[in-house]
Structures are given as structure tokens and as C-alpha cells.
Design goal:
single chain, mainly alpha
Length: 637
């Protein structure tokens, strides 16, 4: 026939291993299977074609060469590995060329009459389950993907083909991933592309049914006892979910998934974020974002998902992955606060750090905090549940819940807090959680004004708490103080400023920045007689503020540059290094402390110190100060 491509030659790549019996699909890949009598050598159980002349079909002549090659393979008694691969490549190229040439007339008739889908299924089932030696599996799945574009050829056959693909690939031993990694990755990539093609090429009326069948099979495999089977199944679920998220049309059909299937998918996405999972964390995070975008649809079984979040967090150490999983607890608590609170109190031991992290997340969102505190008030009061190790710690949360849930005036609020004074408790875990709740509640102006009664105890927290607790206390101070009149704030600002000075030199940059920022605000709040005492505190802070102008953390350094007068005041000490009195020179040296810097580990600092000392040793090179002692008494404006 004119224009027909030549039948591709068959190359004997390698000897085929002994034939294996056909394997029926089981509930799980690799489950015990019924063994049948193996076929005779070179006599595979391939569907025999009917006697039809391919040339008689109404097909573009250019495609007949592929058809002749396919018919030749099906009629041949000898079917070595190279012949099988050639047969699959012919199917793939036949469908691909037909689509590109826009000449599909008669192709569907040919594919159905010669049972190409059934023959692919047989070849997949014949592949050895203990090794991955050739590209047959990946070419078979590419052929299936191309067949899916031929109208109605695969309808009703997709499930059996998928069972054959999953059984042939997922049951491979885990070591094949390392033996020929490229071949393995290409095989898995071909499977992902095949699944996507099956969905995209399916008729709209069948997409939801096909999607549901695919997910049912994969979810069953994702609960396999064998880890490598689970991982391969979860990887395919992730890939499909990404397709759904990126394709709005297909995403609509996900709505036909049953509630248990939706829950199982969410559990798979959560598990994929664990440190032990080998799956792409970015893809898994995208799937969780998809879930967050439609919480009512995906978050069906609240206790089951809450339990999965808690158990998975114990196996996540990276901050970004933890944040992605923790964020799911908020919509769960918004949807069913009672179920979330009850589940965590039931599954987590008292004082458990993982559970406390989830409580912290819920306590950080205003509307979530109030609903969760309401449930905690109910469930902790009956003394049957424990969030912390002791009743006293739990009682602190009950007290916070009472303050948050009561419509109290300022006086009643103050009396109720003074009855409990839970901020005086020294237990860090409880104190941290309570402070998170107070931070969130203080975001409303009315509640912030009521919290003035807590400020003396918060000063105690600044002295005794750990760094994380101090940062939370500073945030509360700043919010509450901003709601007070200057007459109210002034007597609090003076002692508070003194407590802040030691924090200027803390090793934690966030603590330095927060304390200096609050210090700046406090200077503006003092009135009348409190100004003199505040001046003394400010003078004590000038030197630390000056040195923080060179802080490597730019946000801290910027705050310091707002105190530019500190540098001008410090320059007054330089002339005393050349004073006639030894005692004055000694005091100046101690003040500036340049000598030890000559041996600093940073070369630039050593050089600067040596240069400065050399200049100071020559009176003629000493800079003249433009300031007088009077400057020390100047109040920063």
C-alpha cells in the first residue's frame, strides 16, 4: 500500500525469563494468588484476533503499516520480549499518528476487533513481579494513554487495565528503585500520565465514575501493610490531586467522591508531609491548600482528621511542613469545636508538647479561640479530662475561658482576674498557652483596656519567663498600653522601662527588637513627675542603644538609629582618653573598652580598634567634641 511505513524489525534484546501465570487482581497488590497452569513456552495467553483484513477498514493508508505490524504480532506463535515491546510501540504510534493526522475514521473499529486493550492487559500480567528489566511496563501505559483518546475503545475496560497496571508496578520490590532508578522513575511517570489521560479523555458523563474507581483502588493500596506499596499509591494520589486542583473542569467531578473517600484522601495528604515520606512536600502542601480552600467539602470526619494531624506532627521536624499541617486544625475547630477539643483531650497525654502546639494554633485565631475556650470550659470542669498534668494548670485555662466568655465590665473583670491571678503560675507550658490566648483576646480594644489589671503580673513574667514567653508578654504590653490614657499609662511606663533594659542585649534578635520598640513607645507616655525618673532610665539605656545601632539584624539597627543622639553623647567620652589625670584616662578606657577588641575574632573589628587606639594616642589627632556635659541632661524629644 502506498505511503505505508515499513514494519519495524524485531530485535532480540535479551532472553525472556520463564513465563509466569496470569495473576488476578486482589484487594492488595502482592496478596496470595491462585496459581494456574503456566502456558507452554512461546505460547502466551494473548487474545487471538479475528480474521479481518486491516486493508478493508476505512483507515488512512499511512496508518496501515502499524496495523499490519500489530496483526502480525497477534498471529505469530513466537512472542519474545522485544516483540511485545514492538507491539506496544505500534499501538502507541498508531493512535498518536492518527490523532496528529486527524484521521481516526475506522481506528476504533480496528482497536475493538483486535482487542488491543485486552492484549495489553495480558502482557502486563505476564511481566515478572520481582524485577524491572525493560521498558515494557512504561510503554504499555503510554499505549493505554493513547488508546484513551480513541472514542469508546476503553469504555468499561478501564478498571481491569488499571488493576493490571497497579498490580504489575506496585508489587515490584523496593530495591528496584535503586537498581535502575531512571527506568523506575520513567515507569512511574508513565503511570501518572496515563491516569491523567484517562480522565481528560473520558466523556463528561463518565468522569466522576472513573475518578471514583481510581481513587478507591489507590486508597485501598495506600493502606497496604507494605511501605513501598503505600508510598507508590500515595504518590499517584498526590499526582491526581494536583491535576484536579489545576483543572477546574475535572475538579468539579471530585464532588462525586463519597465522604469516606474524601477523608482518606485528606489523610494521605497529611501523611505525605511527614519526615519519613519520600514524596514531594511542595505537591503535598498544594494539596493541603486545596483542602483549605473547600473545607466544608473535604473536612468531613473531624475526629479522624484531628487524630491524623496529631499523630503526623510527631513525625515532622521542619517548620514549614509543621505549619502546613497545623493550619488544618483551625478550620476543623471552626467547623466542630466540640469534636476537636474532645478528640485532643482523649488521644493526647496531659501536657503533651504536640497537643500543646495545636492548642497554641487554635488560641492564635480570635473566632477559633472563643469557641474552643467555650468547649474547654465545659469539658475541663467535669474533671474527667486533662489538658495539663495538674488540676491547678487546667484551672488556669478555665479561668481564662471565664474571662473571655463573660460580658463583664472593667471592675468585674478586674475582680475576677485578681481572684485567680493565673499569670503568677511558673509552669512554662501553661503560661505560654495562656499568654497566647491573652494576646489574641487583646486584639479588641475593649478587651485590651480591661487587661490593665494584668500588667503588674506581666512585669513579673518579664523577669521569670523564658524567651518565648517574654516575647508574648511584650506584645501584650504594647497592645494594652496603647489603649490607656497617658495619665493611666505613665506610672506603669516608668518601672516597665527599667525591666526592658536588660533585654536590649539579649541574644535573640526578636526579643531585642520587641523590647526596644516598646521602650520607644513608653518614653512618649510619661507625664509630670514621672518624667524625671524616666530620664534616669533613658540615660542608663543610651550606651546599649548606641551599640545596637550596628546590629546585624537590620530591624533592630533601624530602631537604634532613632536614638542618634546617643552617638553624639558617647563622643564626649573621647577627650578624656588624653586627660592629664590618670584616673580620668583609666575611666575613659574602661568606658570604651577598646583594648580587648584588638584580639577580636573579626579582622575588621581588630583593625578598627587598633586604628582608634593609635589615633587616641596622638593628642593632635583626637576629634574635638562639639558637645558639653550639659548634653547628658538633655531629654530626648
Amino acid at each position: 500500500m502506498a505511503g505505508r511505513p515499513p514494519i519495524r524489525p524485531r530485535l532480540a534484546w535479551q532472553e525472556r525469563p520463564p513465563s509466569r501465570p496470569r495473576v488476578a487482581w486482589q484487594e492488595e497488590v502482592g496478596a496470595p494468588q491462585e496459581v494456574t497452569s503456566p502456558p507452554q513456552p512461546n505460547q502466551l495467553d494473548v487474545a487471538q484476533p479475528p480474521q479481518i483484513d486491516a486493508d478493508a477498514l476505512p483507515v488512512n493508508g499511512f496508518l496501515s503499516g502499524y496495523m499490519d505490524s500489530i496483526v502480525s504480532f497477534l498471529g505469530s506463535p513466537e512472542k519474545e520480549e522485544s516483540h511485545k515491546i514492538g507491539f506496544l510501540m505500534d499501538i502507541r504510534d498508531l493512535c498518536d499518528t492518527s490523532r496528529r493526522q486527524r484521521s481516526p475514521v475506522g481506528l476504533g473499529v480496528f482497536c475493538r476487533r483486535y482487542e488491543l486493550a485486552e492484549n495489553i492487559e495480558v502482557l502486563l500480567e505476564e511481566e515478572p513481579r520481582d524485577q524491572l528489566r525493560t521498558a515494557l511496563r512504561q510503554i504499555a501505559m503510554r499505549a493505554i494513554a493513547e488508546l484513551s483518546a480513541v472514542e469508546k475503545v476503553l469504555e468499561g475496560k478501564e478498571t481491569r487495565l488499571l488493576q493490571a497496571c497497579f498490580s504489575s508496578v506496585f508489587s515490584l520490590p523496593p530495591e528496584v528503585e535503586d537498581m535502575d532508578r531512571y527506568l523506575y522513575l520513567e515507569t512511574m511517570r508513565s503511570m501518572d500520565n496515563m491516569l491523567q489521560a484517562l480522565l481528560l479523555n473520558s466523556r463528561a458523563s463518565r468522569v466522576s465514575e472513573l475518578l471514583q474507581n481510581i481513587f478507591q483502588m489507590l486508597l485501598t493500596l495506600s493502606s497496604s501493610e507494605r511501605e513501598h506499596v503505600r508510598q507508590r499509591a500515595v504518590g499517584r494520589i498526590e499526582g491526581l490531586s494536583f491535576v484536579l486542583a489545576e483543572n477546574p473542569t475535572l475538579g468539579l467531578f471530585a464532588e462525586y467522591l463519597q465522604p469516606p473517600e474524601r477523608t482518606d484522601m485528606v489523610l494521605v495528604f497529611i501523611e505525605a508531609m511527614s519526615d519519613s515520606s519520600t514524596f514531594d512536600k511542595v505537591a503535598a502542601r498544594n494539596m493541603l491548600n486545596m483542602v483549605m480552600g473547600n473545607c466544608d467539602f473535604w473536612l468531613v470526619d473531624v475526629p479522624k482528621i484531628t487524630s491524623s494531624i496529631y499523630k503526623t506532627l510527631e513525625r515532622i521536624n521542619t517548620a514549614q511542613a509543621r505549619q502546613s499541617v497545623e493550619s488544618l486544625i483551625v478550620p476543623l475547630a471552626d467547623k466542630c469545636p466540640g469534636e476537636v477539643v474532645s478528640t485532643l483531650l482523649t488521644i493526647a497525654p496531659p501536657g503533651d508538647s504536640t497537643a500543646l502546639a495545636l492548642w497554641e494554633v487554635m488560641f492564635s485565631v480570635p473566632h477559633t479561640l472563643r469557641s474552643v475556650l467555650k468547649e474547654l470550659l465545659i469539658q475541663l470542669r467535669d474533671l474527667k479530662s486533662r489538658l495539663f498534668c495538674t488540676y491547678l494548670e487546667d484551672h488556669c485555662l478555665v479561668s481564662l475561658a471565664m474571662l473571655a466568655g463573660s460580658d463583664l465590665g472593667d471592675r468585674e473583670f478586674a475582680l475576677l482576674y485578681m481572684a485567680f491571678r493565673f499569670l503568677k503560675e511558673e509552669r512554662p507550658a501553661m503560661l505560654s498557652l495562656v499568654l497566647t490566648g491573652i494576646m489574641t483576646l487583646s486584639q479588641t480594644d475593649e478587651m485590651a483596656r480591661k487587661m490593665k489589671v494584668m500588667l503588674p503580673d506581666l512585669m513579673w513574667v518579664l523577669q521569670c519567663g523564658n524567651k518565648a514567653i517574654k516575647i508574648k508578654a511584650l506584645a501584650i504590653f504594647r497592645t494594652v498600653m496603647a489603649q490607656l490614657q497617658r495619665e493611666e499609662a505613665s506610672p506603669i511606663a516608668v518601672p516597665l522601662a527599667g525591666f526592658l533594659l536588660p533585654l536590649f542585649d539579649d541574644e535573640l534578635s526578636q526579643l531585642r527588637e520587641s523590647s526596644i520598640s516598646l521602650f520607644r513607645d513608653l518614653m512618649k507616655m510619661v507625664v509630670r513627675n514621672d518624667k524625671r525618673e524616666m530620664k534616669n532610665t533613658v540615660r542608663r539605656g543610651l550606651l546599649p542603644l548606641f551599640f545596637r545601632m550596628s546590629d546585624q539584624v537590620q530591624s533592630v539597627a533601624k530602631l537604634e538609629r532613632d536614638r542618634s543622639r546617643a552617638q553624639e553623647l558617647l563622643s564626649q567620652s573621647l577627650p578624656y582618653l588624653g586627660d592629664a589625670q590618670a584616673s580620668s584616662r583609666e575611666a575613659a578606657v574602661r568606658f570604651i573598652a577598646l583594648q580587648p577588641l584588638e584580639e577580636d575574632s573579626e579582622p575588621s573589628i581588630c583593625s578598627l580598634a587598633a586604628q582608634t587606639i593609635r589615633i587616641l594616642g596622638n593628642p593632635r589627632e583626637q576629634p574635638r567634641s562639639r558637645w558639653t556635659l550639659r548634653g547628658l541632661c538633655c531629654w530626648p524629644r
